Amino acid sequence: MKSMLVALSLGTGAVLLAAGGGQAASLLNPGTALAAERPEVAPRQVRWVCTYGRCVWRPRSNVRVPFYAQSWGPPPRPNCSWVLRTGPQGQSHWQQVCR
Predict the structure, then answer these.
(1) Which residue(s) pair with 83 in the sheet?
(2) Total of domains in the chain
(3) Residue 46: its pLDDT value, please?
(4) Shared domain check, 53 and 32
(5) Whole domain around residue 24: which residue ranges?
(6) Judgement on whether residues 24 and 57 belong to the same structural domain of the protein
(7) pTM for the whole structure
């Protein structure tokens, strides 16, 4: 049953590609059509800038990102930053704070 579905889907894709060319490819994978229609935009250089226990997301920064902040992605909202906090037993940890 599974092999029949795979064969059917591959056969349908081959027929679409043979019939429509580029339009059929965009039907199979809509992301390629969107990428082809967008003009090329130079990527902005944004990164976490960390000083004195606080990391802030800054555009156009040329500083080196610390090793502990390299896995952090962009903030969920514009006013979010990472703050170094001290726990109840004296251990420190990074916590994301959004205002």
Answers:
(1) 54, 95
(2) 2
(3) 81
(4) no
(5) 2-37
(6) no
(7) 0.52
